Amino acid sequence: MEIMMIAAASHGAAEVAPWITYLFTGLLGAMVLCLALEEKIHAKKSVIVGVTAVVALLLGAFTGILPFGAVHLPNGHEMKLPVFIPGIEWGVITIILGSSLFVDVTSKSGLFTFIAIKLTKASRGDPRRLLWFYGVMTVVFSAVLNNVTAMIIVGSLSAVSLGKLGQRGKLLGFLLVEGLLTNIGGLLTLISSVPNIIVGTTAGIGFVTFFIKASPYVIVATAATLVMGARVFGIEPLKTDEERAVALTQVSSFDERDGIESMGFFWFGVAMLVLFICFIATASFDGWPIGKLGMGFVAMMFAVVMLCKFKSSVGKFYSGIDWDLLFFFVYLFIAIYAMEQALVLELIGKGIEPIIGMSSKLGDGLLLVSSALASSVTDNIPLAAVLSNILKSMDPAVDPGMWWSVIFGANLGGNLTPIGSASTLVAVTIMHKHDLKISFMGFVKKALPFALLHIALATLYVLFVLTYLPG
Prior knowledge:
It is built from 22 helices and two strands. It has helices at about 1-10, 20-35, 40, 45-65, 90-105, 110-120, 125-145, 145-165, 170-185, 195-205, 205-230, 240-250, 265-280, 295-305, 315-320, 325-340, 345-355, 360-375, 380-395, 400-410, 420-435, 440-465, and strands at about 70, 80. Strand 1 and strand 2 (about 80) form a beta hairpin. The protein starts with a helix and ends in a 7-residue tail after the last helix.
């Protein structure tokens, strides 16, 4: 990532004519439209975004906006890289790849089946109670790990538990609710998501202050999401004593040791999972040498350690990797990178700038909603950076609510579309893995009521509650 940053910094920004910016804005709109119509045009998301990336790079080359040239390293040497390489968020790619491999290999120890059955037993076979258990676990994992890892782990556990209960018909509802909750959990701490880090550090918000101000919203939004999810997807509690007795008898027959072929490998998996969580949770701390390598490295490191158990047959795990998902992200990052060079994100920022200038409760609310809408169709990381720079350049006495509006909007916008955040896209991928087909528009239709609720609650919270909290 350091080389990528040097690459980005070593090129000056080219002069971009307005018509080029509008052309690329239209290309972004066309990509979103094609994703919405993916079923009608019979194309995978990775192909749609891949075509967009190719067209964006060609247009960028012909218009001269891409920063071609060698990368100048601190030691005086030069390195030639393909122009699109600095645009790819390799940290995200390696987190998805490493986490997926780690979870897949660790599952062979029987650990996740053990956890799933333990939680299922604790729920006494009640689907509603199980939804609450998994919902809270999703938020906690998203806060201390990262959204993608949390979704991969909890999604895998949900499939196992509901399969054991004979309730696979409810898996779609579980996965969608969990996908939405990853973005809510990502609001809990300063290091839970990249937009939090960008905006929080620019605004000078401390770790403890961030937690104090964000946690009440996270608690309320989590409870509201679980209540609404249970109602929308028909996840009802067991109503009669007979149903509860049958469910209790059913879960009592479950053996959490099913799937554990070797107790030695099981306990090794337990130790690796605990260490994995600790390393991921502390990867962003200053002064931690491994943290300098990033969470992606941590995920890949633990994946490699677990693969050593199957060192002569790792091919079966590599073949199970969702390459379509990985290439979707690669192409998306390339497309967004080209649009950054075309100043599309700057155009979005300028469109929001008059709202920032209002410095009132109306401005806070409009900024939050605008940030959410913008982050639902583009990468919320550069968007957060653009808006942070705009706020930083304004009057130092700018309304503190503006900073929080950007934080909430950038995180919650990911719940509006499946491409709004990595975790919601992973949730959709897990659905497809279990033959639960859902299209782009299908996701939007199901997620929209939840996203509107989250954004409405966040707006009310920022306007009327946040400023009265200590910190």
